[in-house]
């Protein structure tokens, strides 16, 4: 297979990831057809830029039973004075740090910036990683996936606080007034950890 332009390889991988997610979660035949079409288009683009037989490309991008690896959940940590930004999740009516699954084609910093914009309406910059946690080591409800959680400290650059498609409210809370938590996403011990790190800016990254 000829060496292809890296830019187009990355774009194709991103399109494939979107198609894969759509085929996994779409709940009707119409959407399934559209995501399948998107997958096929990405293969055609790859063929165009690589001059490689599409059957070879299709095999490269076929969703095989690869060695399983953890999913990655990325959460934004945004303080205003002594309060922490949280969003109310529509799925359970409880509160969590803005964030979500890592996306193919995005760096961790880019993911956290995107998630805060989508869920809380704010433009932020990623400052540093505060913690990398293994979900099994913390009191979350049982989950079907094995998950690592990355907590990234962010600074607010602009924007206006507003809820998004997956959130119904956005607010800052003090440590003593944390609302009911969406424990699939964050636990109280993790929130306490983040407030503790706020008081010790030189602390090393916490990891399990």
Question: How many alpha or pi helices?
Answer: 5
Strand count, sense and barrel status of the largest sheet are: 5 strands, mixed
Distance between the termini: 41 Å
CATH class of the largest domain, named: Alpha Beta
Decide which structural class fits the backbone. alpha+beta
Would you tell me which CATH topology of the largest domain applies? Nucleoside Triphosphate Pyrophosphohydrolase
Low-confidence stretches: none
| Whole-number total of structural domains | 2
Please give a structural write-up.
With 208 residues, the chain is of the alpha+beta class. The protein has two domains: 6-61, no CATH class; 71-207, Nucleoside Triphosphate Pyrophosphohydrolase, CATH 3.90.79.10. The protein is built from five helices and nine strands. It has helices at 6-25, 29-50, 54-61, 108-120, 188-198, and strands at 71-77, 79-80, 83-89, 95-96, 99-101, 122-134, 147-159, 167-174, 206-207. It has a five-stranded mixed sheet, covered by helices on one side. Strands 2, 3, 4 and 8 form a four-stranded antiparallel sheet that branches. Helix 1 runs antiparallel to helix 2 (29-50) and helix 2 (29-50) crosses helix 3. The longest helix is centred in the N-terminal third of the chain and has 22 residues, at 29-50.
């Amino acid at each position: 297979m000829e060496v292809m332009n890296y830019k187009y390889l990355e774009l194709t991988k991103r399109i494939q990831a979107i198609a894969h997610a759509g085929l996994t979660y779409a709940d009707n035949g119409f959407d399934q057809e559209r995501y399948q079409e998107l997958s096929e288009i990405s293969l055609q683009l790859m063929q165009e830029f690589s001059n490689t037989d599409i059957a070879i490309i299709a095999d490269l991008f076929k969703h095989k039973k690869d060695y399983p690896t953890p999913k990655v959940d990325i959460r934004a940590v945004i303080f205003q004075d002594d309060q922490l930004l949280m969003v109310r999740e529509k799925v359970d009516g409880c509160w969590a740090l803005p964030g979500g699954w890592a996306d193919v084609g995005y760096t961790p910093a880019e993911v956290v910036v995107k998630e805060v914009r989508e869920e809380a309406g704010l433009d932020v910059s990623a400052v540093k990683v505060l913690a990398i946690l293994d979900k099994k080591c913390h009191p979350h409800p049982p989950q079907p996936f094995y998950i690592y959680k990355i907590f990234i400290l962010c600074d607010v650059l602009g924007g206006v606080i507003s809820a998004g498609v997956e959130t119904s409210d956005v607010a800052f809370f003090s440590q003593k007034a944390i609302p009911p938590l969406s424990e699939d996403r964050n636990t109280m011990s993790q929130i306490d950890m983040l407030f503790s790190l706020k008081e010790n800016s030189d602390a090393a990254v916490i990891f399990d």
